[in-house]
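Troubleshooting entry. Yesterday's outputs looked truncated, so today I'm pasting the complete records for two proteins to confirm everything comes through intact. If either block looks cut off, that's the bug. Protein one:
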Amino acid sequence: MKSLNALVITAPGINCDLELSQAFAAAGAQPESILLSRLMRNPSLVDKFALIGLPGGFSYGDDIAAGRIMAALMRREIYPALAAAVARGTPIICPCNGFQIAVQAGLLPGPTASPTLNLVSNPAAISDAKKPASINTCTTSATPFSAWPSLAASPTVALDTNIGERFHDAWTCVEIPSNTKCVWTRGLCLSQDCDMLPSAHGEGRFMTDAKTLETLEKCGQIALRYATHDNFNGSTNAIAGICDPSGLVFGLMPHPERFTRWTQHPWWTRLTTHQRGVDTLGLSIFKNAVAHLNCGFVSYVAKNNQPTRLHTTL
């Protein structure tokens, strides 16, 4: 199995790039952080990476709006390179501020999908896309979708101010829809009462129009939901994360990169050795994407889909 190179795009104000790099490394990839300014000067640098991450933080101070400035720069300078990366099969993860950036940069929710068909996606949707040598050739079943446009599309979803109008920092119980196409989360089996990820944001309330919402639901583009009792920001349909129609681009408000070790769990010292004998949810998400690229998705899920059952009573 060849090691996969992972690009972590960073910029002034980003503060979760180290955690994201560590998560990629823990999943078996080789991360490299590159400043957005450097990528803007040479967008072809994107072509050598098999995985891409947009970290969380407060890019450019979140001036104007959360993620707005970084998204505008990406739309103008490197969107074609990122769209080509997706077209050739590159998984991209965008936690928190990365999600806010992705929806404004035209990466999510992506091209229009068809909920009635289920064919093999076309990796040559963008004619000049080049497949990195480190990626094994394998096909994945995905909902057919329109080719990525040459120019970034206008946003059709938004991440608005939390319904409580305050920054919220807490561990959040989440659920994974059974029909999701997201290569980062599909197939992961979660315990019903205690599958958690840390959340920390003030603008994470997912909102969209009724037609877009219907398409996302029918096409399996909902990748992660808040548990019923933990939808603290008031997101529509408790949506915590979505993916594009191919399932490759994953944006979410919680931080999986902050939960790749059991010692990061809020009450890890009370867990038994057996409970800590499986991968954390955060690490499983990153391993899912790496296994997908190595054509080992099915075998990874088969070995790691046992529920992580934790005692929540303190």
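Protein two, checking that the full record survives here as well:
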Amino acid sequence: MRKMLLALLLLLGTAPFAHAAMRSQTVDYSVDGKAMQGVLVWDDAVKTPRPGLLMIPDWTGVNARSIDFAKTIAGKDYVIFMGDMYGKDVRPKDNKQAQAATKPLYADRPQLRKRVVAAYDELKALAAKHAAPIDASRFAAIGFCFGGTSVLDLARTGSDIAAVVSFHGGLGSDDPALAKHIKARVLAMNGGDDRGTMPDAPDFMKEMQQSPAPWQFVVFGGAVHCFAEPWSHSPPGCVYDAPVAKRAFALLHAWLAEALAGKSSNPLPPGVGGAHAPGAGSVRRKWLVQPSAYPHPYSSPGGREIRFNRCD
């Protein structure tokens, strides 16, 4: 069957894809003497340097599933370094173990920030060593669930990273005043029916009004936690939502394209309306509340999305 599929692909003229070689390589580093092990992921068939993304996975941490997920995100466009937030010897096997691994970090946010900063530093070191074709002038961070919390905290440290994107991450902060130090363009995307994260949304928006950098908070109506992770099927609170995930990843790529190009244009996919043109004096240094108007194929039946934007 596999030979027949390969032959069919050759007949269809897709032979070049056969040369793609997604690689994953473990990377050892340390934080305060604690051994950590992340994973570097990239398409070895593409030699052109491309942006380096720090990825912090959900609370299950670094595992085969999150590595495969990183490969799908990296594609030919990014080199991803998946940071380790727990330590080389901690690999949760179920949600109970994952909760136990995250609990001390939620209770000690300075330590959480130290670990995510160390992961970002390791990504920069890998770029300097040419461990993969990483463009050392373009870095961003993405995170899912607990990983979303982590990359938002990376932004709060005042890191020089260009952009941070959180998928259904926790929005709360132990020190909202840290937002005054944010330099990264922050995109946070959460489900409107996510009971775990949305209670913190009002305080998050109030916090982000202190940020000197552009930011956007997107709420997907009807979506719950885990909407971007294809393996999530734990109703009612943690469920993959394919139409919402498609829109969220379109926003991710547009946000990164803008941030990494150093442009200040509106980070919306082509054909998507609703936001004011950048540079307009009426929107500078303000935040906007906008219902989205996604045309096919980004629309979700019965879904409604609200954007909270800070535009510069």
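Both blocks look complete. Sanity check on protein two: Residues 57 and 66 are 6 Å apart (CA to CA).
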